[in-house]
Amino acid sequence: MTDRVHMRRAIELAAHGRGTTSPNPVVGCVVLDASGQVAGEGFHAYAGGPHAEVVALRAAGERARGGTAYVTLEPCAHTGRTGPCTDALLEAGIARVVVAVSDPNPTAAGGADRLRRHGVAVETGVLAEEAERGNAEWLTFVRLGRPHVTWKYAATLDGRSAAADGTSQWITSPESRADVHRLRGEVDAIVAGIGTVLADDPRLTVRRPPADASPAGDDPRLAVRDPADGPRLAVRDSAGGHPPSAAPAVRPPLRVIVDSDARTPLTARVLDDQAPTLVAVAADADAGALAGRTEVVRLPRRKPYGVDLAALLAELHRRQIVSVLLEGGPTLAGSFLNEGLIDRVVGYLAPALLGGGAAALGPAGVTTIAETHRLEFEDVTPTGPDLRLTARPIPVKEL
């Protein structure tokens, strides 16, 4: 039971790195001293910065010797932008390491075995399912060789995303729309289709929260910075101090427009200078004018949507895009779902009824009830007067 309590705290800490660690995973660590008292806590705050184990060990200092470290992901055994975490644990004199999830990255894996060879007791699999959910984006990126895709939509209770005349602003509340910006701020790329661009002319950028809005709540152990100033660094040391973070500025998500026939207007707001934009066109499209305004990638043409969506995700993976927020219209969402390329669904449901108009989801390969895409709810949270529903597709083997 004690192991689960401390691992759950490590998972909570890891979540504070969401949106700032890519292409690295989110990781949390709790260090106990030899008597079993918490001596240090930390999380990985940004790529290139100290890993969670190092942050927690620095906070613990000499109290770490003979103690236990709880880590949400197997400590790395290789030198990348920083040194191996296994070396830091060994140098600190940690006697026992408890790991939630083994590292699937062959480059970094092997940390548990290295620690065992040096006499450290290692246990794995503690709260593995919870830790995997918290690190789903990076684990998908490594295991499947493509970004993790979250489909976000807003709809009325009868599943309509727009009225019969095409109007859709605003179905949901200001609170829900603010929450969408939080989602956008946690991903590497926002994907939309040309239909959305032509109908709504969105910017697909992130509005950052005010400087005094603390995503860490009232926890005095977390040093919080405005996201516009860079990621935050969490640590608790024996004196209760908070070291400053030297994190780089948060980069805006890449805007990706799926536009098979290169119809994006040169005046579209997604082509402004607020964030980088990539337009994905079919290989045979005339995209000369667009190429003069923004980056264009050519992909194989494929029905029903016009470009090969798996090839698009492979291109984004090559660019180290770990997580994607799909904000396209119903046709694009249906195509992603039909191809098994959606890993999570976040729906904002407003207490309203339209009785007609556009559905939130287009054709998704379902012709009979037996082919229904089944989901499992992970969270139901009010956002103002609305409900935010979070669910994940159930793999076929689990049905």
Percent helix, as a range, is 10-25%
Task: Output mean pLDDT.
Answer: 86
The total of beta strands comes to: 15
The CATH fourth-level homologous superfamily of the largest domain: Dihydrofolate Reductase, subunit A
Structural class: alpha/beta
Order of helices and strands: HEEHEHEHEHHEHEHEEEHEHEHEEE
- What is the global morphology? elongated
Radius of gyration: 22 Å
In DSSP terms (H or I, runs of 4 or more residues), the helix count works out at: 11
- Strand order in the largest sheet: 11-10-9-7-12-6-13-15-14
As residue ranges, the low-confidence spans are 211-246
Task: Output the CATH topology of the largest domain.
Answer: Dihydrofolate Reductase, subunit A
Strand content: 15-25%
Name given to the CATH architecture of the largest domain:
3-Layer(aba) Sandwich
First-residue to last-residue Cα separation: 31 Å
Major sheet attributes: 9 strands, mixed
